[in-house]
């Protein structure tokens, strides 16, 4: 291809698009992939799931969260804005008195935390909560 | 094996049969996420605990898969049913293959 002015402009625009997109793209793609891997592409409703997270977390290194559900077999927790969105997967056994657990997680910045539960009947429900983070928890 | 790994678990000593008890667990572990860089700019390799399980007399209570987004010194709180006297077994699985475990007995009274 001859490098004419027109071609140079097209190339430049293309390069801009390619360099500008990937960050957002890949983050969205991986959280979607993580959800798809968990649900197997099934539809996600809302209902029997609760996610308790603070509205504002001063330190993104330890953000206390709690998930609970009446009839969940498994609960997946995702941090949509982290470099790797998966946070944890809780599987409840026979002797779990309640389908609830709490833990502490890392958040890279202000973002949505999402909990998706697989209920005993095989359906999926989700809840989400936005957490404002003052200091991110991923180092740098 | 990561250094200074110490599991700590809080389980009541006694419970009535069929009771629900709250269990709190914490293990000291730095949970290196694989995202951080050292002074020279090299990525510090990931080193985390990737799985935690709790069983009572061989019956599963909870099984958690951990990702790098779990904080340093992973902490879990959950509830368990106590059908009879027995022993809780807590197990943590490290990325490097180490397994840390601890047990707690509970009486019916």
Structural features, described:
The complex is a heterodimer of chains A (140) and B (109). Chain A is α+β, with helices and mostly antiparallel strands. Helices cover 24% and strands 44% of the residues of chain A. Chain A contains two helices and nine strands, in the order ααβββββββββ. In chain A, the strands form two sheets. In chain A, strands 1, 3, 5, 6, 8 and 9 form a six-stranded mixed beta sheet that branches. Chain A is flat and about 70 Å long. About 5% of the residues of chain A have low confidence. Chain B is mainly beta and 109 residues long. Helices cover 0% and strands 53% of the residues of chain B. Chain B has no helices and eight strands. In chain B, the strands form two sheets. Chain B has a five-stranded mixed beta sheet, with no helix packed on it. In chain B, strands 1-3-6 form a three-stranded antiparallel beta sheet, with no helix packed on it. In chain B, a hairpin with a 4-residue loop joins strand 7 and strand 8. Chains A and B meet through strand 6 and strand 7 of A and strand 5 and strand 6 of B.
Distance between the termini of chain A: 42 Å
Beta-strand residue percentage of chain B: over 45%
Overall shape of chain A: flat
Q: Could you say which overall geometry of chain B the principal axes of the C-alpha atoms support?
A: elongated
Helix count of chain A equals 2
* Major interchain interface with per-chain residue totals: A-B, 32 and 31 residues
Per DSSP, the total helix count of chain B is 0
* Sequence of strands across the biggest β-sheet of chain B: 2-8-7-4-5
- Supply Rg of chain A: 20 Å
Compute the number of strand runs of chain B: 8
Give the C-alpha Rg of chain B: 16 Å
- Based on secondary structure, the structural category of chain B is mainly beta
Largest sheet of chain A: 6 strands, mixed
Main sheet of chain B? 5 strands, mixed
Strand content of chain A: 35-45%
Query: Mean pLDDT of chain B, as a whole number?
Result: 92
Mean pLDDT of chain A, as a whole number?
84
């Amino acid at each position: 291809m001859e490098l004419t002015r027109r071609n140079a402009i097209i190339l430049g625009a293309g390069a801009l698009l390619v360099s500008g997109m990937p960050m957002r793209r890949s983050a969205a793609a991986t959280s979607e992939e993580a959800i798809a891997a968990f649900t197997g592409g099934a539809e996600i409703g809302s209902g029997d799931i609760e996610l308790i997270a603070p509205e504002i977390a001063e330190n993104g290194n330890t953000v206390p969260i709690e998930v609970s559900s009446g009839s969940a077999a498994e609960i997946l927790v995702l941090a949509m804005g982290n470099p790797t969105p998966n946070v944890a997967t809780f599987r409840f056994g026979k002797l779990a008195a309640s389908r609830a657990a709490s833990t502490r997680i890392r958040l890279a910045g202000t973002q949505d935390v999402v909990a998706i539960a697989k209920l005993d009947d095989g359906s999926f429900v989700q809840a989400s909560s936005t957490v404002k983070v003052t200091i991110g928890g991923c180092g740098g | 094996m990561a250094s200074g790994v110490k599991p700590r678990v809080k389980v009541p000593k006694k419970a009535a049969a069929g009771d629900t008890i709250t269990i709190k667990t914490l293990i000291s572990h730095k949970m290196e996420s694989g995202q951080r860089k050292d002074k020279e700019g090299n990525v510090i390799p990931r080193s985390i605990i990737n799985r935690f399980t709790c069983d009572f007399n061989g019956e599963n209570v909870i099984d958690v898969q951990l990702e790098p987004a779990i904080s340093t010194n992973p902490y879990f709180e959950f509830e368990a049913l106590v059908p009879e006297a027995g022993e809780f077994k807590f197990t943590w699985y490290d990325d490097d293959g180490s397994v840390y475990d601890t047990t707690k007995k509970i009486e019916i009274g």
